[in-house]
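Please supply some protein, with fold tokens.
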Amino acid sequence: MAKVFTGNVNSPNTEQLNTDSYIEVLLDSVFTLAPAGHNPECYRLFEAVEAGSIPVLIKNDLYAKQRSQYSCKESLHHWYDAPILVLDSWNDLFPTVERLMGNLEALDEMQIKLHMWYDDYMHKVVGDFEEFMVESL
């Protein structure tokens, strides 16, 4: 694992995963951890769902209006009803994942519901954008 982030993507001189390896990891992951950085919403959420992986967040990050450190309040409001894994704290990660992995049928159902939610969400986003563009003419 890289100790320092570098902008030299895919450079053999870094310890970072190259793009192809990162994609393989996402495609092979049932869950993807998505802790908030400077802003709770980031591309990691979208990459995870696109790869069929369930994003994992903690409640304080999902409902960021409760946290003064974020300048983008409620930036994840459109994810509130998404069938993702939301934990009270990161300490709940292992027991929750262990429990979910014990019921593969329910886990498959969760992934199917997430795919359907995301498909609807993206259709709405594209539709809203198209409507905005048409109205701008």
Remarks:
- Strands lie at 31-33, 54-58, 85-87.
